[in-house]
Amino acid sequence: EKDQLILGIETSCDETAVALVRNGREIIANVVASQIESHKRFGGVVPEIASRHHVEQVTLVLEEALKQAGTAMEEIDGIAVTEGPGLVGALLIGVNAAKALAFAHDIPLLGVHHIAGHIYANRLVKEMEFPLLSLVVSGGHTELVYMKEHGHFEVIGETRDDAAGEAYDKVARVLNMPYPGGPHIDRLAHDGQPELDLPRAWLEPGSYDFSFSGLKSAVINTVHNAEQRGEKIAPETLAASFQASVIDVLVTKTVQAAKEYKVKQVLLAGGVAANKGLRTALQEEFKKQENVELVIPPLSLCTDNAAMIAAVGSVMYEKGQRSDLTLNGNPGLEI
Ligand code: KG4
Ligand code: ZN
């Protein structure tokens, strides 16, 4: 049987990415142009700057991916592109590039949800076994997603305020660390002890929702109160205490949900999945659970990339799902 080849395009935030994936699981090329350096001095992603970079980069990144794969457009079966959620101006660049390519080469177009992409990054590592549960933790999302089959996404819990990555980035700013702060806090946390007693938002019993804004405020207040007393809390202690609180809640709720929904797999997804403390805590927890398999993607597939978008596109293509040329960037797209 003929191989299936899907081109993926991702421009929802601050990475311009193009990838080629064979038969849904095999990465043939995976090119990511990061804009982090351009946004750093502003302490966060500036939407207008992001759009301009995507315009400049998208064709170059596409050419590089095709070169790496040694593939011509004619060999491609489907073009998958992130439709949303994300920054509208940024999304539009990828969507329009995909539409132009689809039209010019007469290739089916597939609009993909960004979070579905993060979840399907796991399929590039391990075949999915249903039912499964995915803990999605990124800069914009914190969700527990239940899947009983391909393409079925049931959000059983989500954050009521800040996303986990957002909390990391905001706390990092208080500690005067460069954007994005997540990796810096992760590193610092390993040199400190979680001595501070910071809150954990469990919410109502049985709820799989999350809340991180109270924790973020508690860290900021702790820093300011110490300053007023003329004291300084070691940044390592702050980072370790904050990280312990985030991980405690994420891991506990994931384990509970995995039991209640009797899932076969638990998949970690999103930028915060790169967090060493979280990866280790989940591994230790699921080592004890013989009937549940934990899947964690390599770091390069945790942060935004286009291989994960192509992986979703592959399944959509198989199912006969197609987008048409009216496809538009949708910043608030629901999964
Ligand atoms: O998934 P992603 O690349 O972009 C979004 O779709 O949001 O996630 C980016 C987020 C940022 O908030 C960043 O600080 C966080 O992931 N992040 C981390 C780590 N690496 C990236 N957070 C904690 N620990 C890390 N090692
Ligand atoms: Zn993302």
From TrEMBL:
Whether Zinc counts among this entry's keywords is no
Domain named Gcp-like: which ranges? Answer: 26-310
Among CDD domains, the record links this protein to:
ASKHA_NBD_TsaD_bac
What chemistry does it catalyse, as a reaction equation?
L-threonylcarbamoyladenylate + adenosine(37) in tRNA = N(6)-L-threonylcarbamoyladenosine(37) in tRNA + AMP + H(+)
Record's keyword terms, sorted: Acyltransferase, Cytoplasm, Iron, Metal-binding, Transferase, tRNA processing
User: GO molecular function terms here?
Assistant: iron ion binding; tRNA N(6)-L-threonylcarbamoyladenine synthase activity
The cofactor binding remark recorded in the entry reads: Binds 1 Fe(2+) ion per subunit.
Key word Metal-binding present? yes
Give GO cellular component annotations, separated by semicolons.
cytoplasm
Q: Which amino acids does the record list as binding substrate?
A: 136-140, 169, 182, 186, 275
Which is a Pfam family this sequence falls into?
A: TsaD
Subcellular location, in the record's words? Cytoplasm
Q: Name one GO biological process term.
A: tRNA threonylcarbamoyladenosine modification
What EC number(s) does its UniProt record assign?
2.3.1.234
| Required cofactor names | Fe(2+)
Give residues annotated as binding Fe cation: 114, 118, 304
Provide the function of this protein. Answer: Required for the formation of a threonylcarbamoyl group on adenosine at position 37 (t(6)A37) in tRNAs that read codons beginning with adenine. Is involved in the transfer of the threonylcarbamoyl moiety of threonylcarbamoyl-AMP (TC-AMP) to the N6 group of A37, together with TsaE and TsaB. TsaD likely plays a direct catalytic role in this reaction.
Q: Which family does it belong to?
A: Belongs to the KAE1 / TsaD family.
**Name this protein carries in UniProt:** tRNA N6-adenosine threonylcarbamoyltransferase
